[in-house]
Amino acid sequence: MQKQSGLWLAILLLSGPQWASAASATVQFPLTPQSGAWLLCVKSYTGPSAQALAEELAEEIRQRYKLNAYVFNRGGEELDKEKERIQKIRQAQEDFAKQIGQPLIGMRKIKTTRIEEQFAVLIGGWGEMEAARKALDGIRKFPPPATKFMDAAVTASPAKVGAQGGPSRVETVYVNPFANGFVVPNPTIPKAAKDPNDNYDPLIFELNAAEPLSIFKCRKPWTLVVRIYQGGSVLQSAQPTPESGTFLSKIGLSPQKTENLLTASAMQAHSVAEFLRGMKPTSFDAYVMHTRNSSIVCVGSYDRPDDPALLQMQKTIGGLKIGHLDQLMAIPLPMEIPKKR
Predict the structure, then answer these.
(1) DSSP state letter for 221
(2) Is 319 left (phi over 0), alpha (psi -120 to 50) or beta?
(3) Under 8 Å CB-to-CB from 198, ≥6 apart: which residues?
(4) Which pLDDT tens digit goes with each residue over 77-95?
(5) Distances in Å between the alpha carbon of 103 and those of 2, 4, 11, 114, 327?
(6) I need a surface site. Which of 87, 177, 193, 310 has the fewest CB within 10 A?
(7) Residue pair 276/283 in contact by the 8 Å Cβ criterion
(8) Whether the Cβ atoms of residue 337 and residue 216 lie closer than 8 Å to each other
(9) Strand positions, DSSP E, the chain
(10) Mean pLDDT in residue range 113-127
(11) DSSP secondary structure of 252-266
């Protein structure tokens, strides 16, 4: 057998934890975002017969109680992610082998993670949580379904006859799933994305109102951050211009006080943006955004963070020298421009 070299270590380290290969199941009566925002979870099953039991119970609820019932595969998404992870590892192995021109000799099997699917039965849905909660009071009073759909509990109690301390009577009791139902949000509805404006100071628009190169003059929703000047930046331009005096006073800074570090960072960002716009033979569409403790230089306007033009600009402008003392970020970062509410 060919001796393994240290090159194989990179591939072996890609292995992960143990997983039992299985495909995520397609279910009858699938839960969807259109099923309602709030539902009642009445039962969940695991094991080989889990899917069949969940589907049968959902069908019985629909026929016997005339309610919308759905089945949700709780482990399906995790299984899909695990399969995708394994596929990426395998692809990385193949790509590495091609790169070094060697076959995959002595490779061990990829370790994977065991994920058990769980099928939940839900009733619904309702637009508001309170409406679902009120409906739960009535559903908890439903008579139990067939015993095959219920969990069995073993209880022991003193026998009705005989002396005290005599033999106990062991009984099997079936638990009505409707009595233990609870309210849940629809897991198939994506959680609302956080408003990016929540990350910004509410005074951000006022701080930039007098900036001639304001980022809020950008035509599209995304831009590329190429430099950030914090309050500790060093002033490179000794004398402020009349325009810089206007916007600096707007944000509460004095252009005469050049020792003010925040003033320095604001002026420096403005100067760099002007420099980028005036470069020869290639100029850049540069902007500035001032905050309470920093000033940001941005380049370009884009429709989305993965805009091909944005990605190309990252490569073009990353690490660009500005004069003899300054340099742009090696990897410029996409930023969504704040919007007025």
Answers:
(1) S
(2) left
(3) none
(4) 665 666 666 666 666 766 6
(5) 10, 11, 12, 29, 44
(6) 193
(7) yes
(8) yes
(9) 38-46, 69-73, 118-126, 151-158, 168-175, 182-185, 222-230, 286-290, 294-302, 321-322, 326-327, 333-336
(10) 80
(11) T--TT-TT-HHHHHH
Taking alpha carbons only, the member of 194, 220, 215, 213 closest to residue 205 is 215
- What the block records as the tokens of 204 is 């951000």
Q: How far is CA 127 from the centre of its chain?
A: 24
Give Cα separations from 260 to 90, 181, 208, 236, 263 (angstroms): 56, 63, 18, 13, 5
Angstrom distance (rounded) from CA 330 to CA 130: 52
Neighbours of 10 (CB within 10 A): 12
Tokens 């839900």 belong to 122
Residue 66 and residue 53 in contact, taking contact as beta carbons nearer than 8 Å: no
Reported as a pLDDT band with limits 50, 70 and 90, residue 99 is: low
The candidate with the shortest Cα–Cα distance to 145, out of 122, 124, 176, is: 176
**pLDDT band per the 50, 70, 90 thresholds, residue 193:** low
Q: Where are the domains of the chain?
A: 8-185, 196-336
Cβ-based neighbours of 245, under 8 Å, separated by 6 or more: 255
Residue 61 clears pLDDT 80, i.e. is over it = yes
Q: Mean pLDDT lowest for which of 142-151, 175-184, 245-254, 321-330?
A: 245-254
Both tokens of 78, joined, read 């995790």
